[in-house]
Amino acid sequence: MWDVQSRFTFLNRVDDVYFARVRGMIEHWFASVPPGEQAGLRGRLRANAEAQSASAFWELYLRELLRRTAFVVTHEPKRAHRRRPDFHARGHGTSFYLEARHAIVQEQAIALLGVQGLEGEDHRGSLSGGSERRLCGHRSRAGPEAARRRCE
Known about the structure:
- By secondary structure, this protein is α+β, with helices and mostly antiparallel strands.
- The protein has two domains: 7-98, no CATH class; 106-151, no CATH class.
- It has helices at 7-13, 17-31, 35-45, 50-68, 106-113, 144-151, and strands at 72-75, 87-91, 94-98, 133-135, 138-140.
- The strands form two sheets. It has a three-stranded antiparallel sheet, with helices on one face. The protein has a two-stranded antiparallel ribbon with strand order 4-5.
- The chain is globular.
């Protein structure tokens, strides 16, 4: 049986130069998060639930993107109504609100939830979710090589 581990556990465990650079980059981004916001983000990044940790990473990535493109970022700005977007960004003569959302692709949902296909097949544990392969936006029932040829 496979031991499924979170991305955080994997990155924390693996001893490889490439992944050490990835860890360093994530830690550098995290260091720019204001101290009052770090605890919540840290907990979500370390979560065992893939959707929660991926969502936290996406939020961290977008924050860094805004920061590097010279926007001033406010986390969860107060507004007149209850809903608070993740960020308010100001800069370059403009301002906008940004909600960082992470969507699970169908293959991940099938693997995580063990849903049934339309034809009634059980795709539990399957990463592909069926016989159709997808690569660079092209689909091919013949597999990844046929899709790859369409991409070239």
